[in-house]
Design a protein that fits this description.
mainly alpha; rod-shaped; single chain; 1 helix
Amino acid sequence: MRTHTCYLPARTFPSHLFSSSSLFYFLEFSLLFIRYSLAWATICVLLFGIVVCYR
């Protein structure tokens, strides 16, 4: 009984690891995308503010 319960999670672990890793990569990619678009938005707002101030 004890060995059977220890054996079951070890068998289901790799497929679960694969699905969670793909989800993790998707979340990481979306976080990078959000970070880059926020950086670009900040740069554009700063440039626009500089142009408006010096005009």
